[in-house]
Amino acid sequence: HGGFDGAFTDRWLRRFAASATALEPELTALDQQVGDGDFGINLCAGLGAALAALDRLPPGGGPDAAAPLAAAATAFLDEVGGTSGPLFGLVFQELAAAAGPILTTPALAAGAAAGLAAVQRVGEAEPGDKTLVDALDPAVRELRRCPPDTLPDRALRAASDGAWEGVRSTARLRARRGRASYLGDRAVGIADPGAVGVGLLFASAGREVPA
Ligand code: ADP
Ligand code: MG
Ligand code: MG
Fold first, then answer.
1. What is the CA radius of gyration of the chain?
2. CA distance 175 to 137
3. pLDDT digit string (tens) for 31-52?
4. Start-to-end C-alpha separation, the chain
5. Ligand 1: which atom is nearest the Cα of residue 37?
6. Domain boundaries, the chain
7. Which of 121, 135, 174, 203 is 20 to 30 A from 168 in CA distance terms?
8. Which pTM was predicted?
9. How open is the CA angle 24-27-31, to the nearest 5 degrees?
10. Whose alpha carbon is nearest atom 4 of ligand 1?
11. Do the Cβ atoms of 83 and 123 come closer than 8 Å?
């Protein structure tokens, strides 16, 4: 097949935008319960800006797998407020930096790991603090477990499984970072919205094998 080039990352981001838009009311409802209610708006604003940037690239995202990811990074870093906007921007920035013209599973694993490191450097959250780190960390672990010749769509499916397990774990936790930490026990039972966003990111990738 033609490999996982810009057309693949372009489709990945467009599917992420579609799933986040479809679930915006649920994301909003979660952040209303454990935060200030704007997570769905922040994520969809970033993805709207990312889609506009994708439309300015050559059709199909161009030949380079990194270009759509870099466009998304710039959109989130430059245009989204809230805590989550810059954190998603860092993840996309590191994925873009690791992806060459063709996306491989080792590059994905390296990029996602660097994204996790950047998020933790900035936000200082550890696994178990009930943040999006709880979804990103197991996703990175699954990507790293994949043999190097695993097709990226398959690796991303494994990452998605890990991320959703992490999302479910956040519902059992008290928050130690972010606005939910002000709620103490009242946030127990409710999943972290940012973690759900990371789950959607990985779930949006692995459904389709590029031609
Ligand atoms: P805000 O609280 O500024 O309104 P958003 O609603 O955009 O931010 O994003 C909230 C999400 O950000 C949370 O659900 C959580 O996943 C994530 N988050 C908050 N603080 C941190 C942190 N220190 N490190 C990592 N993620 C964090
Ligand atoms: Mg919020
Ligand atoms: Mg806010």
1. 16
2. 16
3. 999 999 999 999 999 999 999 9
4. 6
5. 6
6. 6-203
7. 121
8. 0.95
9. 135
10. 82
11. yes
Give 111-125 as a DSSP string: HHHHHHHHHHHHH-P
| Beta-carbon neighbours within 5 Å of ion ligand 2 | 31, 35-36, 38-39
**Separation CA 148–CA 146 (nearest Å):** 6
Q: What is the pLDDT of residues 130-180, one digit of tens each?
A: 999 999 999 999 999 999 999 999 999 999 999 999 999 999 989 899 888
d(CA 87, CA 39): 12
42 lines ligand 1 (CB under 6 A): yes
Whole-angstrom Cα distance, residue 24 to residue 45?
A: 11
ipTM of the complex: 0.99
Residue 175 C-alpha from the chain's centroid: 20
SS (HEC) of 15-28:
HHHHHHHHCHHHHH
For ligand 1, whether the C-beta of 55 sits within 6 Å is no
Residue 6, amino acid: G
